User: Which sequence fits this backbone?
């Protein structure tokens, strides 16, 4: 039944007939037998996972490959010995994992340590794991499920879980394997005393599958793969049951499944995932439906950053949405109840991710909750600004057309650039931008949270650029980060969100950045440049000022850049640390 | 050979990564891959496959494929046996 779903998701020989099976596999917890039969991808990315543990990880690891196959990845796992002290975390540097898991049986510690001491100890172990990978590999550590009541250890577990829940924000590069949340979602027993007595694995078979799913579909794709930036939705038999053009607005069915889906889409939007509509309908009909049934619908047309409602081919509309959102098709998920529409769109845009909608809504929501690349591993600092900012880009386009030339357009925008130097509070956003940006990033450095923290430290000069204009506040959208040694600066990354490209913000910023380096006594600078499949815009921009090579004198570069941005009308506000 | 025997043979062969000829027994003591972790893997797979639950004593009493088959047939009841 599931024979071709791995190939389907990895983009090879996509078959619409398998789309419903794919959705079901995401929407409900599969059995261990289904996972054993699930075909593994043969190509694709191999993830090297290191697990330091004080309980067996093997029963979870057994199921991980099937879940990774769903997004075209496979894995190898290196296991430590069982060691309550997790001493092997700081082992040989030679092994370079892509992700490091600390799989801890917290029952071993609750008689000896208070929750605060236990949390502090694991934070130290996590930092040792980060050092082992040179801070590149994210560290994932588990909390603990609640034992069946009455449980005298419940306050200890609750205290520990609260502290571990705060750690991702406190220890850069650390993420939570949330066993307590998996327990809440599982409809059967999470613990299994028999398994515990036999092997010291305290969880049930179903719990092992749930933990593997959390790791393989939620955490690892978001930490190591390309995140989904936008979800494109069909309307009829997707957001409601029925066909607007045939049944009329009053007769469309809005069941509990649809309302749950709407609420979850709102949640995604609030987390910073942009929503878009792509539907064959009359736009006026859709607008009146959203008005007439506003009290029932849990979404409004304003929630969608891009709306393509017309009779054009959907692939063409999806391309228009990608252009409007300024993201690549590979960062978009298209949800439609018609398998042939999904197949046609994927035929034109092979990297597009797709999900067959359940006309009742219920399975669509459940599948979205575990769709690879949608899970939020950390709070998105600019989530609230994104949809509004993208919608304002349409007004910027109108302004640009009306203004005639670039300078007049930039003046009409009344831009204000805020340039912050080594601002510690910007490390999280720096990390996020580094992970998400694909078109204007010169070095493709993909800075980990810990590396971002280092980049705002004393041996770096790092500029973070926030942009606001007459139409909207785009927030922190650009970074130039350089490590400084004596009179040489090495620019580790230049990256700008696609939301502000075309306004020469990056050029104005580089001019001031050169000034900062000069003031610090730096005379030469070199740029780390990596040629990627999509970062041509950044490389082309650098070549305007540095036609050959990657190293230059600061003063020469500053002169060229200031010449290029001399008439830029933006107001620039600089802030020292 | 009943359907139950065949399903168990297939599961044990897959999970222990051993070749099991139809009708031949597999002994835990002489099968290198049948360690305690794989023993629990086999038990959990069998429970899922046949919709049964083995208690700790039953799990530790299993020392061969034939012993496992006997236990499964006792636990699963006549409906399952008729399927074979």
Assistant:
């Amino acid at each position: 039944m599931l024979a071709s779903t791995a190939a389907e998701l990895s983009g090879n020989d996509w078959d619409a007939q398998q789309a419903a099976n794919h959705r079901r596999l995401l929407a409900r917890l599969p059995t261990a037998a289904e996972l054993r039969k699930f075909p593994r991808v043969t190509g694709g990315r191999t993830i090297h996972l290191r697990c330091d543990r004080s309980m067996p990880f093997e029963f979870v690891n057994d199921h991980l490959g099937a879940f990774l196959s769903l997004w075209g990845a496979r894995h190898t796992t290196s296991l430590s010995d069982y060691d309550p002290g997790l001493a092997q975390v700081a082992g040989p540097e030679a092994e370079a994992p892509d992700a490091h898991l600390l799989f801890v049986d917290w029952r071993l510690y609750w008689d000896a340590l208070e929750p605060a001491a236990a949390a502090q100890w694991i934070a130290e172990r996590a930092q040792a794991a980060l050092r082992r990978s040179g801070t590149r590999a994210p560290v994932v550590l588990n909390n603990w499920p609640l034992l069946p009541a009455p449980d005298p250890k419940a306050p200890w577990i609750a205290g520990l879980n609260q502290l571990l829940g705060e750690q991702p924000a406190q220890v850069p590069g650390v993420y939570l394997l949330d066993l307590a949340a998996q327990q809440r979602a599982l409809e059967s027993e999470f613990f299994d005393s028999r398994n515990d007595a036999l092997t010291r694995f305290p969880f049930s078979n179903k719990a092992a599958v749930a933990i593997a799913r959390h790791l393989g579909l939620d955490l690892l794709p978001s930490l190591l793969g390309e995140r989904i930036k936008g979800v494109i939705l069909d309307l009829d038999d997707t957001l409601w049951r029925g066909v607007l053009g045939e049944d009329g607005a009053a007769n469309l069915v809005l069941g509990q499944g649809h309302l749950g889906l709407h609420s979850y889409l709102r949640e995604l939007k609030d987390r910073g995932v942009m929503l878009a509509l792509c539907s064959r309908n009359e736009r006026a009909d859709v607008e009146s439906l959203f008005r007439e049934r506003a009290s029932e619908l849990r979404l409004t047309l304003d929630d969608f950053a891009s709306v393509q409602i017309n009779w054009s081919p959907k692939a063409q509309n999806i391309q228009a949405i990608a252009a409007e959102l300024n993201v690549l098709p590979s960062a978009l998920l298209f949800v439609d109840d018609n398998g042939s529409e999904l197949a046609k769109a994927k035929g034109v845009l092979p990297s597009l991710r797709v999900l067959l909608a359940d006309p009742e809504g219920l399975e669509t929501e459940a599948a979205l909750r575990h769709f690879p690349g949608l899970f939020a591993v950390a709070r998105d600092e600019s989530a609230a600004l994104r949809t509004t900012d993208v919608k304002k880009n349409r007004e910027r386009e109108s302004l640009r057309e009306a203004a005639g030339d670039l300078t007049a357009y930039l003046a009409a925008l009344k831009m204000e650039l805020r340039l912050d130097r080594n601002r510690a509070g910007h490390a999280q956003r720096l990390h996020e931008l580094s992970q998400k940006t694909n078109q204007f990033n010169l070095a493709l450095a993909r800075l980990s949270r810990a590396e971002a923290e280092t980049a705002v430290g004393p041996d770096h000069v790092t500029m973070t650029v926030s942009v606001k204009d007459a139409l909207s506040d785009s927030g922190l959208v650009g970074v130039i980060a350089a490590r400084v040694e004596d009179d040489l600066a090495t620019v580790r990354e230049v990256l700008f969100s696609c939301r502000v490209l075309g306004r020469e913000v990056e050029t104005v910023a580089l001019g001031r950045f050169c000034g900062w380096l000069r003031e610090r006594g730096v005379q030469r600078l070199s740029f780390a440049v990596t040629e990627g499949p999509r970062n041509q815009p950044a490389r082309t921009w650098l070549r305007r000022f540095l036609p050959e090579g990657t190293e230059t004198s600061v003063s020469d570069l500053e002169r060229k850049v200031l010449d290029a941005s001399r008439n830029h009308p933006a107001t620039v506000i600089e802030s020292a640390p | 050979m009943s359907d139950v025997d065949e399903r168990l043979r297939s599961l044990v062969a897959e999970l222990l990564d051993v070749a099991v000829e139809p009708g031949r027994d597999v002994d835990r003591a002489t099968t290198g891959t049948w360690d305690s972790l794989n023993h629990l893997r086999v038990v959990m797979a069998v429970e899922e496959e046949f919709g049964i639950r083995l208690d700790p004593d039953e799990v530790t009493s299993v020392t061969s494929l034939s012993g496992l088959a006997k236990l499964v047939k006792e636990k699963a009841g006549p409906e399952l046996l008729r399927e074979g």
